[in-house]
Amino acid sequence: MTASTAANTKTQVKPSKPYNQLAGKLARMKTTLDLPDDLVRAMKMRALLQGRTLRDLVADFLRQGLGMAAAQTAQSPPPGSMVETAPNGLPTIRCNANAPATTLGLQDLLALEQEAQTTEDLQRASRPV
Fold first, then answer.
1. Which pTM does this prediction carry?
2. Helix, strand, or coil (residue 93)
3. Domain annotation covers residue 39
């Protein structure tokens, strides 16, 4: 038996953390999946509409697919939510009738968006705003 064959026969996959006997489940493990763009968009939209994280939604989908959990019906946004579903199925965020954005022109809105993105970029880069 060659060295490479011996190495191949001993390969084992182990979770990053041990089995949690108290919780009765495996600890969280990060992974990367290559999924079609339309599927990811649909999952993100559903997570947004349900007020959930994408991580929790995908975990529930996987549990359902493996027969580990009952299927949940899609939820509508809660009453009074600023998020609505447009006729084309995309989420729409409604602002209050007296919000400053309702009186700004397109150029002002674009400048405001650019300012917010620049501020966010500087904060992420740990630079003073």
1. 0.39
2. strand
3. yes
* Residue 38 domain flag: yes
**What's the number of domains the chain is made of?**
1
User: Which of 87, 82, 80, 77 has the alpha carbon at shortest distance from 99?
Assistant: 82
Q: What average pLDDT does this structure show over 6-17?
A: 48
Q: Is 115 helix (H, G, I), strand (E, B) or coil?
A: helix
Nearest-10 crossing angle of helices 54-65, 37-50: 110
Please identify which residue in the block is written with the tokens 């209050």.
96
Q: For 65-76, how does the pLDDT look when each residue is reduced to its tens digit (9 = 90+)? A: 888 866 555 566
Let me know how long the chain is. 129
Is 17 part of a structural domain of the chain? Answer: no
> Distance (Å, rounded) from C-alpha 39 to C-alpha 42?
5
**Residue 73 belongs to a domain:** yes
How many other CB atoms are there within 10 angstroms of residue 101's CB atom?
10
Per-residue pLDDT for 46 more than 80? yes
* Enclosing domain of residue 45: 31-94
State CA 62 to chain mean position distance.
14
pLDDT-derived band at 7 (thresholds 50, 70, 90) equals very low
Retrieve residue 30's tokens: 């990060």
